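Possible race condition, two jobs.
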Amino acid sequence: MKIFKAFFALVACMLALHANAALFEDDDARRAILDLRQKIEASQQRTAEELRKANEDSSQLRRGLLDLSNQIESLRSEMAVLRGQNEQLTRGIADVQRSQKDVAQGVEERLRKVEPSKVSMDGREFDAEPAEKQEFETALASLRKGDFANAQTLFTAFMKRYPQSGYKSSSLFWVANAQYALRDYKSAVGNFRMLASADPQHPRAPEALLSMANCQVELKDAKAARKTLEDLVSAYPQSEAASAAKERLAKLR
């Protein structure tokens, strides 16, 4: 009996030790599970926090991109407005330049109508007003057409209107020619003489003396004609008129 009691006691002790060992192992497992759960929860919290921050960053980035897009669109609109304004300004400048050019041309045209300009007549250059030049050319054109009476009237009026004109000597020569054609020899002699006396260096002075002698011949004044021809040869010996004068002097003698 004692042996059985001892055996049962030993078995009970072993069972108790085993129960204690199992209880110890369950505590470790629970603690391990708790630690693992805490780690998992901490990891989940960190992950959630990171996701939250990532979402916030993403939201900020989206807002930033939206703001940038809006700014770009605004800049595009402003550039379009500026391009339109620039085009308008360019057209405005072009219009102003055209207007200024038209005004300048108009002013220049008006000045040309009133300001004297350089002209050349019978080898001489001088200043003449536009109206002065036009009137002289009109008178000369009338003479060339053979309208001698009108030419005489026009040249006479011209010399009265422009007594200091550079065309004066030429006008005297042509009005005298018109009078010669009209057989008004006396008036022609007076104008030819006036040209030769007042402007002896004029290129037509030798011709004026030769024509004056022709008028004197028509007036039957051979003596005056010879004197005029002799003066011509003496004053302008190298001229073509002087050669013609020598031939006529030979006939008059």
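Job #2 (started ~2 s after job #1):
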Amino acid sequence: MAIPVDRMTAEAAAAEASRKSWLEHSARTTAVLAVLAAVASGQYANRFSRTILAQAEASDQWNFYQAKSIKKHIQSGQLDMERALSAGRPELAAAMAQLEANAAAATKKYDAELAEIRARAETIDAEKIRQQKQGDRFQYAFVVLQAGVVLSTIAASAKRRELWVVALLCGIAGFLMIVNSHLLWM
């Protein structure tokens, strides 16, 4: 039984239209994946910059903490030296009592300042770690999305639909990774 020529032509035209359709979708997929990869790359660079700035700020705070701690210890050492020098000299008892009261007030002030500086430094350190985690995740998303771009391009040029499907899966995974990077789910 012979298939009519019109029916063969119609089937061939439908197959050609179907092939053209997914190739057009593949081109669009490549463009969308490239845009998502650019977003991921930009966010990675942003987070990387913020990580560096937070590291510098945290270092400044820890240096300030260390300087205050040194001042506290110097003040304590001076008091010990004054006690040693005044030992056995009862006429200096009143002056020593005043020095000890001043030292106790200064120590209390230094302790409060040190606690505040330490809390600020730890907060900045935590923010730095968060920015670093986000940056790493954006970088991984970028790699997955770039793989999708490459696969989509190869799928279109080689006319291999299965590669395009894998590119779509890479795109979905990359998009979810971008969302995860913002929200830090895991």
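The chain has one domain: 26-183.
Logs attached separately.
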